[in-house]
Amino acid sequence: MIDKLYIIKQILETDEDIDLKILSILELAKENPNQENIHKIEERVAKRKKTLIEVKVSTEQEKIFAETEDISSTGAFIKTDQKIALGEDISIRLTDPCGDNFTFVAKVMRETDDGIGVMVKTISQNDRDNFAKFLDCL
Questions:
Q1: CATH match of 49-137 with 2.120.10.30
Q2: Strand 54-58 vs strand 75-79: parallel, antiparallel, or unpaired?
Q3: Residue range 1-44, pLDDT digits in tens
């Protein structure tokens, strides 16, 4: 059975992009109600763009300086040799080539030897708008 509380919590704390991802998870859950598989679904809502951007990652324990490998409006892959726990919420500050900063809270969705895949959880409307303009220029 699907963890309904988890889904409700995600819907209440998300934006339109993540809502679409949740809807795709619910559709797949009808076909295969194995909760473990639902959390592993990697349904891309936004196209990732390969680009190197300076990143400052803040966890509860430390601050890490790294760079992106790819990025979209809904997430990114951040290259780092530091281990960050799967499922952990982290603060990310990106600095684009013009020196503009964008800050958001993300959840670690994937971890590899090369880095972490994150999904944007919360971002201010101002940062979201400016970040979208920046991504359109890539």
A1: no
A2: unpaired
A3: 456 656 666 666 666 666 666 666 666 666 655 555 444 444 45
